[in-house]
Every structure is written in C-alpha cells, then in structure tokens.
UniProtKB/TrEMBL annotation:
InterPro entries recorded: ARM-like, ARM-type_fold, PBS_lyase_HEAT
GO molecular function: oxidoreductase activity
Comp. bias (Low complexity): 584-595
Source species: Streptomyces aurantiacus JA 4570
Protein name as catalogued: Uncharacterized protein
Amino acid sequence: MEQASSVADLVRMRMDGDVAGLCRATRSEVLDVRLSATEMLGGSTGSPEAVETLFACLRRGPRWQAAKALGDLREHGAVPELLRMLAESRHSREQLDEPVVDALVAIGGPEVVRGLVDLCDQLATGRGYWTVRVLDALAALRAPEAVTPLLAALWKYLPERAERVVRTLGAIGDPRAASALLVLAHSPAPGTHLRRAAVTALHALPDADWPPTHQWPPVEQLLRPPQLDPDPETARLATALLARTGDGRDHLWDVLRRASRTPHDPEAPPHAVAAVCAHIAAEPDLFDVDVPERDEHRALLRHHLRESKAPTVRRAAAGALASYAGAEASEALLAALDDAPLSDTVADLVARLPEPPLRKLLDLFTGTDLSVAQRCGAARALGAIGHPVAASELLSALADDTAPTAVRTAVVDALGALRLLEAAAPLATLADDEEEPGTLRARAVRALGLIGDPDTLPVVLACARSPHEAVRGRAVAALGGFPVPEAAQALGEFVTLSAEPHGTEPDIARAALHALGRIGAPALPVLVALADIADDLSEDLADRLVTALAVRPEAEATAVLGRLATSPPTRKAMSTRPGEGRLATSRPAREAASAALSERATPECVAPLAAVLATDMWLGIREAAVRALLKIGTDEAHEHVLAFCRAATHFYGWHIEALDVIAEARGVRLGP
C-alpha cells in the first residue's frame, strides 16, 4: 500500500478522495505529513475508518490535530474523550485546551454543556488560559445551565479575576444573573473595568426581561452609582438602562434638576448630566411618552444650554433640546450661536431642525451689531441648510472688505457648502489676492474645489504653488474636485517631487495622492506613471498610491498592481536610512499591492495573484492571495492554488481549507 512521504502526496490523496491513504498517512514517520493528514480527515464525510483513525490519534497523537478534525466533523461520540482531555489539561503543559474547547463548541449539544458546567467549580484553580477558554466556550454556547455555577464561581474570583465571569454571564443573557450584576454595578470596585463589565452585561439582557426581579433596593437605585461613574462608557450604558423604565427616566430628569439648582452637586456631576442629555438626544421619543412635565423638561434643557459652565454639558444639552423639542428649540439654539465653543455644533443642529428658521438666520447674519460667533454660526447654518435664498446675502458679505475675517471665512465655507456656481468667480478673485489673509485665501481655495468650476482651475493651480503653506495645502486637496487631465498631471508632479531631496513636503504629497484618487478616470495615466517610482516613495506614500490604484476598475490598474506586487525589491529598497520614512526593508508598495489584488478578486487578477504566491512575501499575504483565488473560483484559479499547495513544505489550516473548497467545487468526496 502506498505511503505518503510528502505534502504533495497528501494533496493528491485529498483530491482523489483517498480516505484510506490519509488514514495511513497519520502514522507517517514524516512529522508534517502526519500532522496535515490528521487535520485533513476533518474534511471527510465522517466515514467509520476516518473517525476510528482520529480516535486513535487522540490517544497516541497527533492529538491537537485530531481534536480539531473531530470538531470539524461534529462527531458527538468524541465528546466524553474531549471533556476528559480538557479536564486533564487544566494543569498540563501540552496546551490542548484550545483545540479541545473549539471542538466542543463546534459539536455543541446538552452533553457538552453538562461537561463544561461540571468544570465550573474548578475555574478558580485552573491555569489562566484554561479558565478563559472554558468561560468563552460557555459564552459561545449561551448555556443557561451554567448561570448558577458561574454565580457561585463569581464570588471566588472577586475582585481581581471576576471580569471574565461577568462577561460570560452577559453573553448568556439569562435574567437570573441580573441581581448579582446589579450588585457589582452598584458596588465601589477597585477599578472601572469590573463595574463597566457588569453594566455591559446588564445592557445585553433583552428588553423584555427588564427590569429584572430585585426586591430591594430598587433597580433604579442600584444603577445610580454607575450612572455617575467617571468612565464615559459606564455612564452611557447605565443611563441607557435607567431610560428603560419610567422610574429610571424620572431619576435622569432629576439629575438635570439637581445640576440646575446646585452646579457642584455630587449627585449630578457634569459628566453624568452630559450622559443624560446625550441619551435624550439619541432617543427623544422614549422621554416623551405620557410626560405631563414636558414644558419643565424643555426648560431644564434650555437652562443647561445657557447656564452650564462645562462646554461638554452645553453641547450635549443643545443636541438634546434639538431632538426633544424640535422646531420649538429654535429660539434657544439661535441664542446659543453666540456661544463660541458651541457655535459650529449648534449651527449644524439648527440646520437639521424640521423647519429651519431661514429668515431669523438671515437676520442674525446681516446684523452687524451682533457678535462674530453668532454671525459665523448663522452663516454656517445657512450653508448647511442648502437653500438658495441665502445666496445673495452671502455673496454680498463676501465682497465686504470691512467685515471681520472670521465672518468672511464662515461665508466662504457656506458658499462652498452651497456649491454655488455664481460664487466661483468672486471666490477665485479672493483666493488669488495675496493681500488677503492666508487662512481666508486657503478656505476660498477649498470652496473652489467643492464647486469645481473649470474656469477657476488656473487659479487653483497657481495657489498649489503658493509660498503660503495653508494656501498650498488646501489648493492641492482642492484639485481633486477637478476631474480633468490637467489637474491630475499637476498632482502627479507633486508626488514625483516628493521622491527627490528637499522636494515636496510629505503632507502635500499625501494630499496629492488622495486628490488623485478622487479625480477618477483622468487620474489613471498619472497613477500608472507614478508606479514606476514606487520604490523611491516613502512607505506611507506607496500605500496611498496603491489605494488610489485599487479604486480604479480598469484592467490597466489591475496590471499595474500585479507589476507592483511581483517585482523584486531593488537594492535601494532593501536598505533604509533615517529620514526615508520607511518602516520595513521590503519594497514599500509590494505587500500593499498584493493585498489590493486580493481584495479586488476579479478574473483579471488570477495571473498576478498566482505570481504573488511565487514570491517570498510573508504567509499572511499569500494566504490572502489563496483566498482571493478561491473566491474567483475558476478552474485556472484552482489549479494555481493546487500548485502552490503541492510546493509547500508545511501546511497551515488555511492550506487544508483551500483543498476542501476545491474538492467540494469538483465534487470530490472524502468518504462514502
């Protein structure tokens, strides 16, 4: 009888459906053959010969691969032996707990659950990884039978190691654990992690099981400490839990009341107030159910928007008021435009109101006796609303040289947001005027890129070579709004110059590559040309070049990616010096291009992906190439994968998965 002496022999046996040959190979004197053959039997149809061989391997080895294969086969008959192995591995150095636990989870069923539950009383004395894997298995199986023994184990773990048990209880989602979780959420913990884990587990309970049965103290009272927790995530989750009940919502409103009466009340610190407002903004309808105090609640939100000393609270109150009061919030929000730290946020909220107050915004914008912050906020809101009625007022303000620079800047941004074609000419004049402030010119160039009027391209090109850094950077980015060859060519020059000593600054080159990706088809010839100097670019720029090529669907882009992926490192790329911007000694674009081809996974990628398999790149890149070829799924693609597997000297799990996929596609069964 034939004996497998190499991995190539195993590939042939797998593709021939030779169960007997693989069973014999599990006793091979060649270690790699023995290991791979055992794991391959997990792709069989569960023939008695394969199962018997795997049981023998569990006793004599290779045990790791045998356990994995039995899990892949969902072989229920292996459960007693796997449970015995798991119990023995509690103090063993053989490290079989990972494949055994994975196999038990894959098999599942009442017997597995009972066996894992029986191990709960040993959790506190097991090795760290063993304990974690048993708990993760119970979480994956979501076994309600584990709740009681886990609660008993929980107290043995407090306080240092209880977090993993709490997470398991949360994953199971059984309401019987709620009381213990509430106590942990309420108790002062030595750190924030355990309290956060308890609140997270409570949050995972179904809404139908809330509030949980807990006689005293009330659930809402137990959740008050975590709602005040300085950890933002803990406070957010506790706020969401309190919002599920009427009593809880009453408590949240009371937090706002306390803070309005006593700004430094320890029961209503600013971060807790902000968490309440944020949840009201996220679920306004929940707080508006049968509430007779609606007017009082709106007044509370207006108070915090106006009076709070903490900008985070004022910002959160603005969002809550906009969501909770809708159009009725407009007056308070318009007044809050005067709050400089909040002005932009409030302007965006005003623009999203059901009926934006256009007329009042125009009055605020044109009111020269109002504050700069208020006028800037009004301009931003007018641009975000997108209504053309504001165009004439904004254009008039743009021409007003006496207006504050901040107001003119806000006007420029608004005109860019509106994408007004008639604004292109005055914006171009402003951008070209070197007597104007540089920041204002830079924003004007950005607006020109948003409008994209071809007549203004010469101005943007000139600004891209401006000595003013902000103007230059904005102009290069703005060129991405002009999908024409002239703009693409200029951007390519900036990238090319970055490869020369004292050439383009890295930030400008990065902006240029990003803009080339936005231009579309006219940028392809430039990107193809830049691929010739990929070795001379920094690693960051090479990645961005590949990203820009990867979004192009043309066959030419695929060909260039293939060339980048498979060309060998140059002498220059194999040695790096300080200041070159390289993190690795390999060719910077090589692995990025290979990854892009794997994500592309079109029939045109078969040849370059096959070439990637023949390179010396790290296995993760070649694994991705194999998976991409399997996704393409043609006979040619499969043949390349088979050739790659035959040439391998060692198999990983993904090699075997690839053979299983190809065998299934060809109708090859490994067994009866």
